[in-house]
Amino acid sequence: MTTDIAKTAPAKPSSALRRWLDSDIWWSFTHSKAAMLAAAIFAILIVTAVFAPWFAPQNPYDAAQLDMWKAELPPVWQEGGEWPYLLGTDTQGRDMLSAILYGTRISMIIGLASVALSLLIGMTAGLVAGFFGGFIENILMRIGDITLSIPTILIAILVSTVVRQLLPSDLREIGASAVLVLAIALSSWVQYARTVRAQTIVERSKEYVQAARLLKVPARRILARHILPNTLTPVLVAATLNFGMAILTEATLSFLGIGMPPGQPSLGTLIRIGNQFLFSGSWWIVLFPVIQLCLLVVVVNVLGDWLRDVLNPKLR
Amino acid sequence: MTAMTSQETSALSVSRLVKTFDVSAPWLNRVVERKPRQFLQAVSDISFDVPLGGCLSLVGESGCGKSTVARLVTGLYRPNGGEMRFAPGHDGKPLSAQMIFQDPYASLNPRWRVKNIVAEPIRELKLRKTRAEIDDRVVELLKTVGLSASDGEKFPHEFSGGQRQRISIARALAGEPEFLVCDEPTSALDVSVQAQVLNLMRRLQDQFGLTYLFISHDMSVVRHMSDRIAVMYLGRIVEEGKTEALFARPRHPYTQLLLQTIPNIEKPHRDRVVAGGEVPSPLKPPSGCPFHPRCPIATARCSAELPEVRTLANGTRVACHLAEDA
Ligand SMILES: Nc1ncnc2c1ncn2[C@@H]1O[C@H](COP(=O)(O)OP(=O)(O)OP(=O)(O)O)[C@@H](O)[C@H]1O
Ligand code: SF4
Ligand SMILES: [Mg+2]
Questions:
Q1: φ, ψ of residue B102 in degrees (nearest 5)
Q2: Residue B215 is part of a domain; what is its CATH number?
Q3: How far apart, in Å, are the Cα atoms of B300 and each of B281, B288, B306?
Q4: Would you call A4 and B196 a contact, using CB atoms and an 8 Å cutoff?
Q5: What atom of ligand 1 comes closest to residue B22's alpha carbon?
Q6: DSSP code of residue A63
Q7: Residue partners of B280: CB distance under 8 A and separation at least 6
Q8: Is A208–B109 a contact, with Cβ atoms under 8 angstroms apart?
Q9: Cβ(B57)–Cβ(B225) under 8 Å?
Q10: CA B180, CA B12: separation in Å to the nearest integer?
Q11: What b/e sequence results for B102-139 when a residue is b if at least 16 CB atoms lie within 10 Å of its CB, and e otherwise?
Q12: Which positions in chain A touch B151 (Cβ < 8 Å)?
């Protein structure tokens, strides 16, 4: 009786890094040009946005740094362009590059926060519905159905309008980003809830969960330690793709004027402002924020698609 | 009404156990399609005793309700009727039961390290206090089932089916049970590995004085494990008795059929009696004796009247109108 035991003998003490470099995910990453390119661009976008104060020639929020004499300058390579206004300036003399970097930062923060909040709502609802079933499952999933039957952007508009009205007016400016996060989260949690619920139902009936039940492990701990970790893979993929969606929703809301105020422009706000100059010849005020937004969303989607392809066949 | 007459004390007595599943379509579909509610009786009126320190095996084809009995016994399902009584264990409380599951791939959480899987019962039941004590106990358990201490650091997917079943056994032992329910622990394994795992389980039974409720669909596996065998068909026990008695002289036609279909190494090409017909759906069990559509000796009485369980002179219990005594 050796065949069974022999294989277990030598166990390399493997570090976490070693395991990661050996993993299929890393292998697939190094063999996908699209994924590597997207990751590289994404990394640049993140670094330049997070460290915007270091990269940007100007602080676009600081009115004192704006110079009306430098308003509506074209990009440097155009006639009339001026250093250091690489991508030109807007009507208030705000450096477009700086505004875009700071705007990207705001867009990313709102995207991240709203994905986090909708994950929290959606995963909790999905776990509870899938694990306990019955009445509570019916209620939660019907709320989800109703949410899904209304277009995302309508929900977001509805929530942000209502919440804004409820906020005292002096808080509206400051609370704008929080309202956006809430609006986007409330319009996008259903997908997570459905995914997690389906996975929870599968995991719940698996024998390792029954083994835990035999030990009378409390439901809360079974959910947190056994079931939740096994629902994360599909959720991770959805969350990556939804990060792109959230940034777009934010941009749309801001474009419609119910998002970030012009004093603290996100990419969407910049596009709204620039939109007015599209036909006045100052095309750079709108074009560069649009390019940045597209780049960001495309890169995130490429990464999300790649992740889905790597993780799905095995659903680890 | 415990039908078995035995001198040994029993670790578990089960009497007239019933489990019905509600398999109705969802409420809305029932209303729209005018379908009635539907119930599936997975376990009907089952009684047996498991001898203390011994092994009772449940055998039967897929879907006859073996796993349901296992889950009832361990308390994962609530019975719709009947009684179960565990004898008092060494601490005076009813014997504690643990379970080894059928599927070695679904019974271990893929995201946990083996040492944490094995430590879970120890932590949950608070059997050891300090971390060091728990770690030591885990290593001891892994060695008991033929694995090494370093295996504790790995994840379940790094092991073969047989090794996983060893991990499952280590986890079950970690709860320090006196009673183990083993639901087809080897049916997913290769024949060579099967024998190793079965030998391990027998060794552990002697070493720790465990009582087994062993489940299998394989008569040859059961023969080497059990003191007593209960043959199940469509949620009922049709014959129950001592292993030797049952193999020497099966009384129920279904038991005879099962024994005939065991592959015979000496005479591999002997004529086999082909099992006539399919297993009926447990949703619509046949009238009278549930085995009558497949029974080679069925009479008119068989399709009309459910045979009662009779105890024969040698202690075998059998549910068949025509099974003769002596
Ligand atoms: N939770 C459940 N809900 C509804 N029906 C069930 C449930 N569990 C089992 N059944 C049904 O009860 C019957 C007996 O199932 P059970 O799993 O006990 O059979 P088994 O003898 O263990 O079969 P196998 O050898 O395939 O494991 C089957 O018809 C099955 O479909
Ligand atoms: S009761 Fe009749 S049908 Fe049932 S097993 Fe006995 S002989 Fe066959
Ligand atoms: Mg089973």
A1: -70, -45
A2: 3.40.50.300
A3: 21, 10, 12
A4: yes
A5: 4
A6: G
A7: B234, B286, B290, B293
A8: yes
A9: yes
A10: 11
A11: bbbebbbbebbebbebbbbbbebeeebeeeeebbebbb
A12: 8, 11
Nearest CA to ligand 1 atom 8: B68
Residue A245 located in a structural domain: yes
Neighbouring residues of A53: CB distance < 8 A, sequence distance ≥ 6? A59
* Average pLDDT across chain A, whole number: 84
Helix (H) or strand (E) holding B183: strand B179-183
For residues A94 and A73, what is the distance between their CA atoms, to the nearest angstrom? 9
Q: Is the pTM of this model over 0.90?
A: no
Indicate the residue of A4, A13, A214 with minimum beta-carbon distance to B162.
A4
| Closest approach atom of ligand 1 to CA B235 | 14
Between A284-311 and A228-255, two packed helices, what is the crossing angle to 10 degrees?
A: 160
* A4 within domain boundaries: no
Are A182 and A163 in contact by the 8 Å Cβ rule? The answer is: yes
Q: What range defines the domain where residue A259 resides?
A: 88-315
pLDDT for res B263: 64
pLDDT of the residue at B8: 62
Give the angle subtended at the CA of A262 by the CAs of A260 and A267, to the nearest 5°: 60
Q: What does the alpha-carbon distance between residue A310 and residue A32 come to, in Å, rounded to a whole number?
A: 11
The verdict on residue A39 lying in a domain is no
Q: Using alpha carbons, select from A95, A51, A105, A93 the residue that is nearest to residue A69.
A: A93
E strand or H helix at B99, and its extent? Answer: strand B97-100
A7:B160 CB<8 A: yes
B5, pLDDT greater than 50: no
In a domain, B136, yes or no: yes
Residue B267 has pLDDT above 80, yes or no: no
The CATH number linked to A113 is 1.10.3720.10
Instruction: Give the residue on B whose Cα is nearest the Cα of A19.
Output: B154
Residue B266 is predicted with a pLDDT of 54
d(C-alpha A118, C-alpha A181), whole Å: 9
Residue with more model confidence, A274 or B183? B183
pLDDT digits (tens, 9 = 90+) for A8-66: 444 455 577 777 777 777 888 888 888 899 999 999 999 988 888 888 787 877 777 77
Domain that residue B65 falls in: 10-237
How far away is chain A from the Cα of B28, in angstroms, using its nearest Cα?
13
ipTM score for this prediction:
0.85
Q: How confident is the model over A159-213, as pLDDT tens digits? A: 888 888 888 877 777 778 888 898 899 988 999 999 999 999 999 989 999 999 9
Number of compact structural domains in chain B: 1
| Number of domains, chain A | 1
Q: Is the pLDDT of residue A119 over 80?
A: yes
Question: Cβ distance A188 to A159 under 8 Å?
Answer: no
B195 neighbourhood in chain A, CB within 8 Å: 1
Cβ atoms B182, B194 nearer than 8 A: no
For residue A19, tell me if it sits in a domain.
no
Best probe residue, ligand 2, of B234, B251, B292 (max atoms within 8 Å of C-beta): B292
Taking the CA of B62 as reference, the closest ligand is 1
Q: Find how far residue A275's CA is from the centre of its chain.
A: 25
**DSSP H helical ranges for chain A:** 3-6, 16-22, 24-30, 33-50, 52-55, 96-132, 134-149, 152-166, 169-188, 190-204, 207-214, 219-221, 228-255, 267-275, 284-311
Residue B2 is predicted with a pLDDT of 42
Distance B298 CA to ligand 2 centre (A): 5
